[in-house]
Amino acid sequence: MRRRLLIQRDKYGPIAIGGVAALLLLAGFWIFAQGERGYRADRSREGDIQAQILAASVVAAVDFGDRIAAKEAVDALRVNPQLLAAGVYDDAGKLFAGYGRPGHSLPPAAAKIGAAPRNVTQSIMPIIRDRERIGTVYLSNAVEPLSRRLSRYAMIGLLLFMATLVLAVAAVAQAALRRANRELAQQARSLAEANSELQVQMDERTRAEEQLRQAQKMQALGQLTGGIAHDFNNMLTVIQGSADILRRPSLLDEKRVHFASAIAETASRAAALTSQLLAFARRQPLSPVPLNLNARISEIAPLLAPLLGAMIKVHLDLADELDAVEVDPAQLEAAILNVVANARDAMPEGGEVTIRTRNVSPEESGGLGHAVMLSIKDSGTGFHPHIMERAFEPFFTTKSVGKGTGLGLSQVYGFVTQSGGDIRIDSAPGKGAEVILLLPASEHEHSGDLGVPKAAASRTSGRVLLVEDNPQVGAFAETLLSELGHQVIRAMNGLEALKLIDEGMDYDLVFSDVVMPGMSGLELAGEIKQRRPDVPIILTTGYSDRIAEAGSQGHTIIPKPYRLETIADAVDRALATS
Amino acid sequence: MRRRLSRASVLLAAALCMIPAPGHSMVGQQPRMLELAVKATFLPKFMAYVAWPPAAMPAPAAPVQLCVIGRDPFGARLEQAIAGQRIEQHPLTLRRLETTEGANGCRLAFVGGSPNQSAEAALRALQGAPVLTVTDARLGPARGMVHFELSGGRVRFHIDDAEAASSDLAISSRLLNLALTVQLREKQR
Fold first, then answer.
1. Which one of A272, A379, B61, B110 has the fewest beta carbons within 10 angstroms of its own beta carbon?
2. B149 strand-pairing partners
3. CB contact under 8 A, B10 and A132
4. Domains of chain A, with CATH numbers?
5. What span, in angstroms and rounded, lies between the C-alpha atoms of A431 and A514?
6. What's the CATH code of the domain at B71?
7. Interface ipTM
8. What is the dihedral angle through the alpha carbons of B77, B78, B81, B85, rounded to the nearest 10 degrees?
9. pLDDT digit string (tens) for A402-457?
10. Residue B41: closest CA among chain A residues belongs to which residue?
């Protein structure tokens, strides 16, 4: 309401000021006109009085025809400079006495007195003696010139002008202010509109980004699950089919071995795939051991030829006296294979892969201290910069569906960073690509051989406490251990195992799952350590948060899926050390 | 009235115009006639500039007397001059008297003197009475309140305001302004 009033006052302000100015001007003109009229009337009245005085003073002179006396009376008026002409006429209207200033002649007879010219007032008075008119007096008075009168009004005029000017300035100022206010309000309005528009756009953008992220996640998940399902289905087909054939009664030994091998091989590939998944998530349980890269690469190199095919040559450039590194050998192998596989895909026409190692000083390693570099360089198509940016993103792939999971370089990245190292790609389109892994140098000397598990040299047998909640896996493990010649005591969970131990059950080794309801394998291991610190404990798991985060805590860990040889070896070692 | 006034004015104008310049023959008959006519015209006019004591004035409609005492040089010219003239509301009548005997009603008296009563005697007789006395230098040295004299070829007059005052008459200053000389009354001396 107040604002509304303000606006209205705003709106009518200049009009009001204009009105006041006009009123002032009108008042000024009115005063001027009044003054003029009053002045003329005053002059006229003055003239009449002078004429009356003259008429009275020349009565006797006219009466007695005394021109000299009349002339004297008329001449007495000469001192008045405004009096232009004065005349005394007798009763016949003839000029009796009088004078006229230069340029102002007297009418020769009373009858000849005409209308007053401009700037002159005329006064005509009868000369009366005893109520008888005996003559006429004529006076012609100058009205002050307009310029002189105007100069008298100048002060009023000036004041009026100043007042009007002030009002005009005020009106102009107010108009300008009003305009400025309007523009400001307009600007504020458009600013607010722009702001809300911006807000809406920001909200929309946030929503769109959220949707995009969600879509990307879903796409990635789709890609991953699609890839996994595809690969697993293929492998399951082989396993299923092989198992079906093995169930046939009249199967030759030769064929039985073949299909069993096919199952084992396919299961290994499936295990490798799940291991890759865990690697990209950096959740794999690492078992870092000091090793020499040169030795590992030399071992792996022969495996690369079938992977790369005849068109691609492998060139090794291995440094002498290379420092040891402390990494998980299986993950290292997977990382090298992943990078080499990428190199192969980048060189469909063939080319060369160079695997290089050398020591890196702390100055060059970028905060890693002493490090060892492993570089795998190809002569392929190279990376576009925008692809390079995303190369390590999980599920990002330039390959078609089924050809790659988008997890290769992610595994490499996960492995290297989890091992405390760093990874770089040096590439340009058409110039090939070089993937450089920097791994911190280890203080420890590398062990001579930590390769593929081998069958235990001397088979021993003992009493094994098997703890496994899954009935199938439990039955399978019991079969395996029994096959190996061990005596197996089954427990379905940690509590049951502890109960058996506390009841005085005798055992030489504990073989336990990690992820179980109630008490986990790690907790169980802790409890058993308190009771029997000497008893070896082997833990096995498909995947465990606790172990991925906290490590094995000194226990032997066997990842699922495990093979007969793996279990035999681990159990033999454990029994041998106890 | 207008006609009469007109006629009087014409006469006066004619008289004034015809008064010859000094040195010119004033002895001829014609100028003398004019001089008399002017003087005759003046006589009733004087009465317009004189205020008498209220007691001396008659009742409103009653006439006021203009008298010629003794010699009368004007003759019929005076009748002509007086004709139709009024003093305020009063008509004017002309009386010719031999002496001041019976001059009680006169308010203006031209004193010419006569063998029976000299001008001086007549003036003495009228002394103190509310009568404006007029004399003429041509007729002798005796001087009334108004005394005609020819000056510069024009008919002029002296006024003895002191004498008028002693008779309780008030003569208008306008008339005094026209006089050749004025004998001022006591207060103004």
1. B61
2. B156
3. no
4. 2-144 (3.30.450.20), 286-440 (3.30.565.10), 463-577 (3.40.50.2300)
5. 49
6. 3.40.50.2300
7. 0.76
8. -160
9. 556 566 787 788 888 888 888 888 888 888 889 999 998 887 665 544 444 444 44
10. A64
